[in-house]
Amino acid sequence: MAIKQEQSLAAPIPRRLTRERNARQQRVTARILLLAPAVIVVLATTTYPLISALITSFQDWQLTNSPNPTAWVGLRNYAQAIHDTGFINAIVVTLEFTALSVVLSMVLAMAMALVLYKPGRVNVITRALLIFPFAVSPALKGYSWKFMLDPGYGIYAQLIGFFVPSAQGYIWLAHQGWALFWLAMSEVWGWAPLMALMFIGALSAISPEIFDAARVDGTSGLALFRHIILPLLRPILLTAMLLKIIFSLKLFDQVVTMTAGGPGDSTQTLNFYVYQAAFRDFNMGYASALAIILVVALSIFAFVYIKLALGKAG
Questions:
Q1: pLDDT tens, 56-80?
Q2: Disulfide engineering: 252 pairs with which of 160, 269, 271, 302, CB 3.0-4.6 Å?
Q3: Are residues 24 and 138 in the same domain?
Q4: Are residues 223 and 124 in the same domain?
């Protein structure tokens, strides 16, 4: 009798384990089904094109001669890039643009954040408006700045000519140095407000007691910024800088709509040079090699930056 009772008590245990196993399998299946669409989209739009470009970079494919790759050439396309003066110039221009746009964006964003982070009706409204420049498409920004810098009717050109009469009628985008500067400013116009919002959020998270204690100790405004605000904002500063550098290195839209790489090749960035190799020269194999070089360089930079900069901040 006792044995039968023990068996009856032990009998539900396997059934409970089976139900738990089935429930676990259903949860795993549900997660896979929910993730599957996103994984398929990523594979179709990112992984497959990247692998296809990698394969093409080892092939000779002149689109004007054949609709398909004609022969395997190994590393010839990559070797050609090393000796290509146009590619070297694109690297230099891209680095100059990146340095200029990142520094200006960070400085202006921090200045705006320090002014707008304090509570107030005007500040709240201004913060809400800061997102609009970034929401404008890069191609439209290029067209807008090209229009505003036109010496005949551009508002920026007219304002500069009003305050600096010697610059009246000056064609800003026809000068190599100024063309790159104004191209960078069109990027700063969109990015500085967004970065300011990021800095405002970080400043608002700092306890007011820290600022009160510093003021009681007689800390000056400059010392407060240097020794308290900057160290506390270091993680968000480094993150914002990383995003800005990556987006600057792959600039394309504004170059097409604002300067077309000119005058000469003074604003010919890496992405624009890859585009020209593919759709002006129709050298798909060489363009693919340049694109892979750009992807690898960005990946290495992001990895090293995160390890060194953000690792120390963490």
A1: 899 888 888 888 888 888 899 999 9
A2: 271
A3: no
A4: yes
